[in-house]
Amino acid sequence: xxxxxxxFLILGxxxxxxxxxxxxMTAGELPFLRSLVHRGVRAPLRSVYxxxxxxxxxxxxxxxxxxxxxIYGFTEPVGRPGRSRLVQTFRPAEAIWDRLSRRGKxxxxxxxxxxxxxxxxxxxxPGMFSEHSETYPTGLREEVERSIGGRYxxxxxxxxxxxxAEWLATATESVLRRGHAAAALAxxxxxxxxxxxxxxxxxxxxxxxxxxxRPVGEIAPELLAFWRALDRALEEVDRAFRGGGGPAITLxxxxxxxxxxxxxxxxxxxxxEQRYLVFRGDPEGTRRRLVSRLLLYAERFGPAxxxxxxxxxxxxxxxxxxxxxxxxxxxxxxxxxDRIDWRRTVAFSYPVPEGIYLNPHNPxxxxxxxxxxxxxxxxxxxxxxxAHIEVFGPAxxxxxxxxxxxxxxxxxxxxxxxxPRMDFSYPQPFIRDRPQFFYGSGTHRMDGILIGAGxxxxxxxxxxxxxxxxxxxxVLDGMGLPLPTDLAGRSLISDLGLAP
Length: 500
Description:
The chain is α/β, with parallel strands linked by helices. Helices cover about 35% and strands about 20% of the residues.
């Protein structure tokens, strides 16, 4: 079989993990995914670090790690300390679809997180950043909405306990509509390469992991209905894509895995305690400290716990931001940044919560002192008594780094079971038993999923992870393009049992 005759469909299941999918497949809830596993390759897929949506999907698309891209989270520093903006693009690095488009392949990209689409030989309907983003070509959204007979779904709204049933119904309808849209585009445009991302899975796992981690027989029917809808949507896209003719390969992948979140580390609070971060006066005030202590105290009692959950819903409602600030005080890093003494502060964590940055505005932080300070911070974090903290320098994680945006150090806490946070919502730096009123019950893990099936794929299963960075060279190799020497991963064509 000539490599150039293959077509590739990549179905992105954001946050997908075998810890959840395996029991669901075994119970017969996901027949399409189970059929792919039986017919093809099943393997864990190791994410990049930080294992977050934007750096992970951008690394998948380009075959370059976050250090090479200079992208470590959803936002990037801009202007004075305490200011950031959404990551604008992975360019000038090229995505898989850029390289394929240049070679005359027809490509389609659906729901990939882009602020702005751009011209290529095919179509782009971005997702995540805007419900009404531009498309390429212009008018693609209207074409899709005519095809599916309704609105193309945007991001899910914020979750609130009192709206659980409606929220899950919206998530279920969204994956079905997204599947209809991708299938319609595949049938009409017959792309050689199609990427379609389902983001709803990550949102549901974040919010309801404590329920999803139960035995399948104890999972609520509405949650099972959501995963069955996802399975049907993936099957619909796969069937439509294969209808385009010719040998085709389907890869179902995730950007990272998922699991329970147990604790919280407030990194800036720790840095302040250690005198690396210095405030002018009291950063959050007496009212905030009182409110936070009352909330944590109320968590111990059943009736009060229900009240704090309602209060948390109230505070998270963006329409009441000013009222919430009046009662709870200023707690985000952005809100207190103007109270930080930037001439005395040595280090801070912002805008990447897994990162610690040295302060470029401290006149005493000479190049010689930087290394000593970093060694001291690393040593203190590694000896933190309440959690296991791994500390990495950029050179430990990446082939190279964008020094303008990179943190000086990265932390990973309790194997990602503890979430690093940048805010000042609570007076202590570490909360071991995470309160119920905190947002969600799930967080990311390093290992996601790879399920590959199609014409010529040899069935196999492995426990050793492939890398998310392997997907770009695999697609390029499998579609007959020469492999660029600047990609970080390797082609998995032989691992799939395909002839070169």
